[in-house]
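Quick one:
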Amino acid sequence: MRIAFDIDDNVPTSVYFTEVPTFQFRDFEVEIGNVPNMVPGDSLELHLTLKNVGTLIDDYDYVTYAPDLWMPTLHEVNSLDSGEEDQIIIRLDVPEHVFGDYEVILNVISEGTRLSRNYTIALSPEKTIYLSPTLVAP
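Output:
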């Protein structure tokens, strides 16, 4: 709000108020923290930060894509006020026999705008070398 004066001979003759329009929007950012080592047969937790960078409160939906048998579970952030941030945690059960590289995809949807973004996390198993002795008969 702005207050303005009309002045004649240094004497206010009228006062009026004007509204200054404000620009409001919804948007978000996701930051992926350090990705821990992926050990076959163990659970893995991925910690991401969701931040509302808009000027309005917003609600969020999620879809997680992971390789078969990884059984992802998600700790979700449902609603954030402007400027707020919170943790999203994706928990994965890594199968015992995994080889190669894998991707986990988190799709975040802003309910206010229906804006949707995919975040891809690349995972590779920690390499372990197993030595097994071979017995040779004399």
